[in-house]
Amino acid sequence: MTKQHTMIELHHIIKRFYIGQPNELEILHGIDLKVNKGEFVSIVGSSGSGKTTMMNIIGILDRPTEGEYMLDGVDVAGAKDKELSMIRNQKIGFVFQTYNLISRTSALKNVELPMLYAGVGKKERTERAKELLAMVGMEERMTHNPDELSGGQKQRVAIARAMANDPSIILADVN
Ligand SMILES: Nc1ncnc2c1ncn2[C@@H]1O[C@H](COP(=O)(O)OP(=O)(O)OP(=O)(O)O)[C@@H](O)[C@H]1O
Ligand SMILES: [Mg+2]
Description:
By secondary structure, the chain is an alpha+beta fold. It folds into two domains: 6-79, Rossmann fold (3-Layer(aba) Sandwich), CATH 3.40.50; 107-172, no CATH class. Helix content is 32%, strand content 23%. It has a four-stranded antiparallel β-sheet, with helices on one face. A two-stranded parallel sheet has the order 5-6. A hairpin with a 2-residue loop joins strand 3 (66-71) and strand 4 (74-75). Helix 4 crosses helix 5 (151-162). The longest helix is centred in the C-terminal third of the chain and has 14 residues, at 122-135. The protein is globular, with a radius of gyration of 18 Å. 25% of the residues are buried. Magnesium ion is lined by residues 51-52, 97, 173.
């Protein structure tokens, strides 16, 4: 049997907002989660229960108030910002609940952007972005800006963008 490779490990993650204020709010009450390489995990919960809050922590877009987070062997709390942005760019593909596509920028350029940050050359990133957009059935709308796309089309562009740098983790915050 091959050894299991842990990709995501949360230990007792707590997230509070408005800390120290009368309206202090605890959203995550001590989450433990372990996800191994190759696993497909769905997180289900009612609206407002804290799914996006938790995904933002897993995607290193936000920090927990308390608890430990190991991402592919890296202690996120102890890592430098530069290392974290590299991890985000190379290892994590994030499909935002509201897509967060860059406005006034074509679908093609949106998908190219993570590759631009990763230093992929123009020709290669355009080619790959086109392939990814074709894969999600968006070849006919590649030159359209987000505000000229339907909700589902925007979501498909967001999925293609999340896959741009062939990440080892895809976090999809979808309803
Ligand atoms: N930055 C913030 N400041 C204060 N409260 C917040 C903040 N972000 C989220 N919350 C609150 O935390 C709770 C959980 O929000 P979250 O977006 O994580 O829910 P969700 O499970 O993703 O819901 P949905 O299914 O509707 O997307 C909500 O009550 C929300 O109002
Ligand atoms: Mg949400």
